[in-house]
Amino acid sequence: MGLEDKMSNKAEDAKGKAKEAVGGATGDDELKNQGKGDQAKSDIKDAGEKIKDAFKH
Questions:
Q1: Cys-Cys crosslink for 20: which of 8, 35, 39, 46, Cβ 3.0 to 4.6 Å?
Q2: More confident residue, 53 or 23
Q3: What is the DSSP secondary structure assignment for residue 27, as one 8-state letter?
Q4: 1: which DSSP letter?
C-alpha cells in the first residue's frame, strides 16, 4: 500500500470520527451517520489496498 493511500485513508477515517462525534454531541443524526459512512469507506479502501499488496508478493 502506498504511503499516499495510507495517509488518505487515515485522513478520511479521522474526518469520519470527527463528524460522528460532532453529530453525536449536537444530536444531528445525519452528520453522525455520515461520519460512520466515511469510516466504513476508509476501512473498505484499506482492505482493498491490503489485497492488492498481497498479490504483489
A1: 35
A2: 23
A3: T
A4: -
Can you tell me the distance from the alpha carbon of 17 to that of 41, in angstroms, rounded to the nearest whole number? Answer: 12
**Of 1, 4, 3, 8, residue with least CA distance to 42:** 8
Q: What is the pLDDT of residues 7-22, one digit of tens each?
A: 899 999 999 999 999 9
Cell numbers for 40: 466504513
What cell numbers appear for 44 in the block? 473498505
Q: 48 is written with which cell numbers? A: 482493498
Answer for the pair 38, 15: CB distance below 8 angstroms, yes or no. Answer: yes
Cβ-proximal residues to 38 (8 Å cutoff; 6+ apart), any chain: 12, 13, 15, 16, 19
